[in-house]
Specification:
The structure holds two protein chains of two kinds.
Chain A lengths: L1 H42 L3 H4 L14 H9 L2 H32 L6 H12 L4 H14 L6 H26 L3 H8 L4 H12 L1 H17 L2 H6 L8 H6 L9 H32 L5
Chain B lengths: L2 H5 L2 H5 L4 H8 L1 H4 L2 H22 L1 E2 L9 E2 L3 H8 L1 H35 L4 H12 L2 H12 L5 H8 L14 H26 L4 H8 L4 H29 L3 H6 L11 H11 L3 H26 L4
Antiparallel strand pairs in B: 1-2
Helix pairs in contact in B: 5-16, 6-16, 7-11, 7-13, 8-11, 11-13, 13-16, 15-16
The chains are: A mainly alpha, B mainly alpha.
């Protein structure tokens, strides 16, 4: 009898805990999604309805006016294309070189404890706050007449993504068993061949996670682009959006439309790659 | 491991191909590392040296005037610059409060999902969305929510019968508003790393602990936290490094105001360099920030043994 009440009480407690947990997750979901919903809702409202008091929770007269302004009258498509090209360029450079360096640091022996020193130095370059290197980079690009070019942005972003890519791939390769590569070398493959044919395919989840992070970081970057680019031909989407917050007026509708459109590809992308994101991280980088 | 191969003697000779190919194979360990090292050298050593050179000069906004050597003068200015002290304090407050909140919320959320709804990866991805959005879009979203006249936050306050606030425009609430927006964006990052860490926990110690009758609280403290320690260390390191260079949110949401309450170091450097046209002094402040960041992270990484 006594054990049964005890059992029942712990069951009630368990159900209660479960309910509380679901409630907490629900609250987190609402808080996560509401701001995104809000910017989307505002992008479909006429200006007068954006300023409505009390706010319209649902757009009463939905309109595509702001999308037309942003993408037909103003060059937001151009900005988005620039962002895309810069992000893809940076990701390719960072992942290719970062993977090679990460592999080398994970697998090879170097004289005089180089491995440790070089890894640490590569990591430490990531610590430099972008604002610190902006003035020299500006002058650097000015000297080589590369201001207002997308290549300048790719170079600048690579400086921030390459250490990260190297670091992630290094820890990923360290977690892979070395025996398969050894077997390939015994069977007559070169070291480079063992890297290409054996290690690289095994590291695919790590590669995917690294590439995803590089893409997101470069698609979103703001400060460097703000300083290095001034022309429509080179400016990225974040700068285009910020440009609509002026001293005299904030074009809320247009900004909401462009801001929402900047989020859409990233969110779609997130759902496509979600599997790699957690898997790539749980095998690699996070173990240190 | 791979001793013979990386030494490149016996195996390399047995390979087909010309002399160049054999040379490349023998020096592979340097060749694979070279592009990264060269790129990073070019892109970090040059800015660092230049910053140091600029920091010991007074640079006139007029490019025709020569730079005037002032030695440690720009660094000495840091001691008595009240605005710099304000920016430093704001940055510290922001970093400590925001990162602590993000860590607690991210870890809590990861534990909840890991324990109660493990299968729904869809839900996990939804919760990760904010960290992937452009910070500029995040800043503008929150600007719209905080707007005192027509913002949705004041509408909610009104419905709940609470006093309306100016949020990002209020002297006492501006920093809080920035922190909330940052927590919204970056809690998912901690959440993601913790989920990945939890996914790689071994099962056996928990089975043993359960047999010994250890409570779930004990299991959490004695097993989960020690196992997660390296992941926690990396997550905190990355977040602190990013928090120290906060820029976008402040630039759009408050511009550093009101009354300098949200003026952080990155924004101050930007103002000194571009608005006050004093790049020499901006370089000195930048070097200070760089120095503090490197000292802090090095100490932390040594302590957590992250660099091995």
């Amino acid at each position: 009898m006594a054990t049964r009440t005890l059992h029942r009480r712990s069951r009630t407690k368990e159900v209660l805990t479960r309910l509380l947990a679901y409630l907490a997750i629900l609250v987190a979901l609402i808080l996560t999604l509401f701001p995104i919903y809000w910017i989307a809702a505002n992008s479909f409202k006429f200006d007068i309805d954006i300023f409505a008091v009390p706010p319209e929770w649902l757009p009463r007269n939905p309109t595509l006016k702001h999308y037309q302004e942003a993408f037909i009258q103003r060059p937001f498509l151009r900005y988005a294309l620039n962002s895309f090209l810069v992000a893809v360029g940076t990701t390719i450079v960072s992942v290719v070189f970062g993977t090679m360096a990460g592999y080398a640091l994970a697998r090879f022996h170097y004289p005089w404890q180089w491995r440790k020193q070089v890894s640490f130095w590569i990591l430490s370059t990531r610590m430099m706050p972008p604002i610190v290197s902006i003035i020299p980079l500006y002058l650097f690009f000015n000297y080589f007449q590369m201001l207002n070019t997308k290549s300048a942005l790719v170079i600048a972003y690579t400086a921030f993504n390459l250490p990260f890519a190297t670091w992630m791939m290094k820890s990923y390769f360290q977690d892979l068993p070395v025996e398969l590569e050894e077997a390939a070398v015994v069977d007559g493959d070169t070291r480079w061949g063992a890297f290409l044919h054996v290690a690289l395919p095994l590291a695919r989840p790590g590669l995917a996670a690294t590439a995803i992070f590089c893409l997101i970081i470069s698609w979103n970057e703001f400060l460097l682009s703000l300083i290095i680019t001034l022309t429509e031909q080179s400016q990225t989407l974040p700068i285009g959006i910020a440009g609509r917050v002026t001293q005299y007026n904030t074009y809320w509708g247009e900004i909401s439309a462009a801001g929402f459109m900047a989020c859409v590809p990233i969110v779609i992308f997130a759902f496509i790659v979600q599997k790699h994101l957690v898997r790539g991280l749980s095998l690699g980088a996070v173990k240190g | 491991m791979l001793k013979s191969a990386s030494d490149g003697t016996s195996t390399a000779q047995s390979q087909p191909g010309g002399g160049l190919e054999r040379w490349a194979e023998r020096h592979l360990r340097y060749l694979m590392l070279a592009p990264t090292v060269l790129i990073l050298l070019a892109l970090t050593i040059f800015p660092s040296l230049y910053m140091f050179y600029a920091a010991v000069h007074r640079i006139s906004p007029n490019p025709d005037l020569p730079w005037e050597f002032v030695g440690a003068g720009n660094f000495a200015r840091l001691l008595s610059d009240a605005q710099f002290h304000v920016a430093l304090r704001n940055t510290i407050v922001f970093t400590v409060v925001a990162v602590t909140a993000e860590f607690l919320l991210g870890l809590g959320l990861a534990l909840l999902l890991d324990k109660f709804i493990r299968r729904l990866t869809f839900l996990k991805t939804v919760l990760m969305i904010p960290m992937m959005l452009p910070p500029i879009a995040v800043a503008i979203t929150w600007k719209l929510i905080y707007e005192p006249q027509f913002g949705v936050l004041n509408e909610i306050m009104y419905r709940l019968g609470l006093p309306l606030q100016a949020w990002a425009g209020d002297v006492n609430l501006a920093m809080f508003s920035i922190i909330v927006a940052d927590v919204w964006q970056w809690t998912p990052f901690i959440f993601l790393l913790m989920l990945a860490g939890l996914a790689s926990l071994p099962v056996e110690p928990y089975e043993a602990a359960a047999l010994d009758g250890a409570s779930s609280w004990r299991q959490f403290w004695d097993l989960t936290i020690p196992f997660l320690k390296p992941v926690i260390a990396i997550a905190l390191l990355l977040r602190v490094m990013d928090a120290l260079r906060l820029f976008d949110l402040v630039f759009i949401l408050t511009g550093g105001g009101p009354a300098d309450r949200t003026k952080v170091l990155s924004l101050y450097i930007y103002q000194v360099a571009y608005r006050f046209a004093d790049p020499g002094y901006a370089a000195a402040i930048s070097l200070f920030v760089l120095f503090v960041t490197i000292v802090l992270s090095t100490w932390f990484m040594k302590r957590m043994r992250l660099a091995d």
